[in-house]
Amino acid sequence: MTHLLKKNLLSLILLVLLATALWLVLRPTAVAAPASAFLLLDGSVRHTHDFQGKVTLVNFWATSCTSCVAEMPALAATHEKFKSRGYDTVAVAMSYDRPEYVQHFAQSRQLPFDVAFDRDGSIARDWADVRATPTSFLLDPEGRIVRRYVGPPDMARLHASIEKLLPSPD
């Protein structure tokens, strides 16, 4: 090899090593989900720590949000598809929604997952100050946020992410 070729090859190797080191340091890491108490429509309360051991989608939505209403059948189907493998969904209605609208929506659509109402907006504030709906957070079994979706998620990608986090089917 010529001297110039050796020098270029060495430079390339060093550049790849540096890029790898930077990626390891700067890569996004999962952060713990905020500690929250979710007041469900039936009056019971679920806490963030209740999600431990399950892959969970926390979805912020509103009955006045057309995208939210449109994505609900897909979220319900996703819940049904994966629930037997340790997947859960909690839909959190925004504080500006009317409780009776949320109750009617959940009952009339027979949503198969828990629906909570964020009465004072504190849950949305705790979860990265959610203002746009729909916004969803995918949690791993350790209760860490691994994905955030602003707007309706691409369902194929969501399913792929869920599959990676769940144990293999028997």
TrEMBL record:
Residues 27-167 form the Thioredoxin domain. Pfam families: Redoxin (PF08534). It comes from the Bacteria. GO terms for molecular function: oxidoreductase activity. InterPro entries: Redoxin, Thioredoxin-like_sf, Thioredoxin_domain, Thioredoxin_ResA/DsbE_sf. Gene3D superfamilies: Glutaredoxin. CDD domains: TlpA_like_family. This is Peroxiredoxin.
